[in-house]
């Protein structure tokens, strides 16, 4: 049987990653309604758009292209953002995963800089490398998004370069335009050192709020 992209519940001390469902809609609407200044280049639905956003993500999941998650705060039990595995690439035999991307990530303004993003990435990376045995994990962002690029580098990914006109822009007012994408990766050989760094960072707790 071929590989099926299905993301299990992943649980940490600060955040629990739950497969995205419509039951998360009210919490995500509230999260998206907070200060949106950091979402300039990121696809984050407005409060009235959350239902359609979830429908779109679940359609991608049904097509085998995406495993979407709600990021749920362990203390409050509320969904405070979203993330996903996507763009699975299989080995030629088609029965196991060669590489995966982590993306479609956003957090409510109040959750940024709290350590949630670091722990969520740690959980996603660990499952990809240690359960799916991927050879490579990708992350990418709009090349103009310096905030996102810094956050990706902070969780241990290596910058590989910028691919010009790589994908559709998510920036407001840029419908139909293409963006340059900054590409980052972690390989299986790099994962042990990356894991150690992330675990040390999580043990120290958040340094400052972004």
In brief:
The chain has 210 residues and is an alpha+beta fold. It contains 5 helices and 8 strands. An 8-stranded mixed β-sheet has the order 1-2-3-4-5-6-8-7, sandwiched between helices.
Could you give the topology of this structure?
Elements lengths: L9 E2 L3 E5 L5 H8 L17 H13 L3 E8 L5 E12 L6 E11 L8 H15 L5 E7 L3 H9 L3 E11 L9 E10 L3 H14 L6
Parallel strand pairs: 5-6
Antiparallel strand pairs: 1-2, 2-3, 3-4, 4-5, 6-8, 7-8
Helix pairs in contact: 3-5
Stretches with pLDDT under 50, minimum 5 residues: none
String of helices and strands: EEHHEEEHEHEEH
- Please list the strands of the largest sheet in the order they lie side by side: 1-2-3-4-5-6-8-7
Rg (CA only): 16 Å
The outline comes out as globular
Q: Strand content of the residues, in percent?
A: 25-35%
The total beta strand count reads 8
Residue-averaged pLDDT: 93
> Helix proportion of residues, in percent?
25-40%
Structural class: alpha+beta
Give the end-to-end Cα distance, rounded to a whole number of Å. 44 Å
Query: How is the main sheet built?
Result: 8 strands, mixed
Output the number of helix runs. 5
